[in-house]
Amino acid sequence: MPMRLRRKYGVALPATLAAGLIASGCTATPYAAKVGSQVISVSQLNQEASDLASNASFVSTISSSVQVKGSGNKTYSTSFMDRVLGRRIALVLIDQAVHKLGIGLSTSSPIAVLTAEQSYGGPQSFAAFPKRYQRQLIADTANITALEAYLTRTNISIPALQSYYNSHQAEFTQICSYHILSSTQAASQKIYAQLQAGANFAQLAKSQSADSASAQAGGYLGCGTYAQYQSAFGNTFATTVATAPLNKPQPPVAEKSGYGVALVSSRTLIPFQQSIPTVVATLFGSNGTTAVGSFVSGLAKAANITVNPAYGSYQVSGTTAQVVPPKAPSA
Questions:
Q1: CATH code for position 36
Q2: Number of domains the chain contains
């Protein structure tokens, strides 16, 4: 996987392969990588791998793309170690650039703290990391955010974020809703007629909804923002739950999987403090992450980067920079 910087989990973990590196003493050479005059030691790499792997919630989010554990006791896969190393190299390059440009963001800023928590699965998941590593992740997030703001020329001061939040409160409203899904509009219309005649919504959902996941909960979909509903169910359904009167079944509307009768149980404005990471991400837009990735690849091309041969080599091609594992020995 090429190196891509992304908000979720801070910096994407690059590279591929799947052998096994021991978490301590995997090589006699003291460095894992050198980025200019800055050294990433083997002990630092091992500690970071251990910190990441100790968080079960985090591991579950990356397990579909990389094998964390190695084949031996207390080992990690080569792919995981190379991704952690490639990620740390990128973060060192970002740190060097941020200090050179003089654009740092304080690690005590709620922007850095709350974005770091959200990036690693929320406050509960983030709290599962060691305290020492939490501080590192916040510092990493502060640097990435500062660089992204610089590259996109975005004002992320608290007053600017508050101003956007105040004028776009519909985007930060938590909507909790139910639905009864049918495969056709005609079937959905019959269900709506039954509800109009006094039928119980939850009972109809359990017996007639085509959405088996929500049916057993009486059609309960959970809570989300307009954007989340839009992504999951489409524009028409999202608009319906965003505007419908509370606790009143609505006429059938198109969903991505058919037609649904919706019922909104509540709409609650998410507090500004909790909304900060979302406001920042919205202001950066879709080009922010791409801009950072391209910038870091440019830094990597110009930098003097050496990777311990035990981990492979560092290669930059176009906008892709990653640690490439060593070739397996011939038979």
A1: 1.10.4030
A2: 2
